[in-house]
Specification:
The chain is mostly helical. 69% of the residues lie in helices and 0% in strands. The chain has one domain.
């Protein structure tokens, strides 16, 4: 197999597009957390909101703006695409690729966890009074953190990446490992459940790349299809689909080259529709067809909807030159460079510093004014934190990962594969 035709080709424009697109997704996810906290009925995490319009708006495509799960699933899909290129380097053994990946992810994740606990101990979790004011049952259920050293170490060393949290772990079917997984409601940084999926999805992608480089094409694609049936409708299938998109990207452009301008926007709109509909009929149809023939399954019909939406949206954007051009602005690319750091830090900042700002602003600004001030302060504060985190922690993790595996620093793609820990 001529793997160099696909995996060794350095498609920098695609990497820049993904980098910029991830930056925009991180800010949509940040906005999502704000709505989950302050406008819970709009975000579908409470029956009654603070305003009459919340519930009606949650039944419209505007819900896509606060659908953090679809954004996360798009991250997984992009990971498979980017890691297919990263793992194709012949300069490292499979073990060194895996070690480099683990170090690259663990150092920023552990450090962000330490920062989250420090912020939590300084500012405390949102007060009962504030949670009663917002009416967010979702926010009230989180960050019930035992202040014991054993819990903190378990969360930082195991829960965030290795064994995951009880409700999201890949090892949920293994009783003794699932018993060791901390509850996600006891974490100081709950979004870190995605780093568990990122780690094991990365290792799955590495195995697929190795098979792609060594097996006969017909045997490989038979094995790949078997892997698809194994991971089934779980979110790990997105890593495999991302790999397939990278391996077949030249063929895709040949097939869709003449019509991509006509199908790109409809695909994006279809993804937004699937993401925002409250009924699960699309997800139910998806699961009813695939569940009997697959091993692992989506946790719910909503999760299946997120998977379908992610595939539609990223496919449509990838086929649309105008959208890619709009996402390739210098500011977007810079935000893409620090987007991994933004993701690691946004939740602890919003859930510790955010409530303190809201309580200060609420008496004078009212509910809407206080939420606006909270966002206006926390968003740039997160960027500042992320800027220094990327320079100090993220870059150090890259250097340590390279030194530990004796890999050379790439010369032509500096800063391209670094986003969201893709170096």
């Amino acid at each position: 197999m001529q793997a160099s035709n696909y995996l060794h080709h350095k498609n920098t424009s695609n990497m820049l597009f993904l980098m910029a697109h991830e930056a925009s997704l991180h800010y949509r996810f940040y906005y999502c957390i704000m709505q989950l906290f302050f406008y819970p009925a709009f975000a579908r995490v409470a029956n009654d909101g603070n305003y009459a319009l919340e519930k009606p708006l949650s039944h419209t495509p505007l819900f896509f703006l606060v659908d953090g799960y679809t954004a996360v699933y798009i991250f997984f899909l992009m990971s498979g695409f980017v890691l297919a290129q990263s793992f194709s380097s012949p300069n490292l053994t499979a073990i060194n690729h895996a070690l480099k990946r683990i170090i690259r992810l663990f150092i920023p994740t552990f450090t962000a966890g330490v920062i989250a606990y420090l912020l939590l101990f300084i500012f405390n979790r949102p007060s009962t009074e504030l949670l009663r004011t917002t009416g967010s049952e979702w926010a009230a259920s989180l960050m019930h953190v035992p202040s014991t050293l054993s819990h903190i170490l378990t969360d930082l060393l195991l829960g965030s990446m290795v064994i995951g949290y009880d409700s999201t772990s890949i090892f949920s079917g293994i009783s003794f490992l699932n018993a060791a997984a901390p509850a996600i409601t006891s974490s100081a940084n709950p979004p870190m459940w995605t780093l568990h999926a990122e780690l094991w999805g990365s290792l799955l992608t590495l195995l697929i790349v190795l098979a792609y480089r060594t097996l006969d094409p017909r045997l490989f694609w038979l094995l790949f299809f078997a892997c698809i049936l194994t991971v089934g409708t779980s979110h790990y299938v997105l890593f495999l689909l991302g790999f397939a998109a990278y391996a077949c990207r030249n063929l895709t452009h040949r097939v869709f080259g003449r019509i991509e301008r006509y199908i790109a926007i409809p695909l994006v709109l279809a993804g937004i529709y699937v993401s925002s509909i409250q009924s699960g009929w699309i997800g139910e149809a998806f699961l009813s067809v695939l569940t009997p023939v697959t091993i692992f399954h989506a946790s719910s019909t909503a999760s299946a909807n997120h998977t379908i939406a992610a595939v539609f949206i990223i496919s449509g954007i990838a086929l649309s030159s105008p959208i890619k051009c709009a996402l390739s602005h210098k500011i977007s690319l810079w935000l893409g460079k620090i987007s991994f750091s933004i993701y690691l830090l946004h939740f602890p900042i919003l859930f510790t510093i955010g409530p303190a700002i809201f309580l200060l602003a609420y008496p004078a600004g009212g509910y809407i004014g206080a939420t606006g001030i909270t966002l206006a302060v926390c968003a740039p504060l997160t960027i500042i934190f992320a800027y220094f985190f990327e320079r100090i922690v993220d870059r150090s993790a890259i250097r340590i990962a390279r030194l530990a595996t004796k890999s050379e620093k790439p010369g032509t793609e500096k800063g391209v594969l670094a986003y969201r820990g893709k170096d």
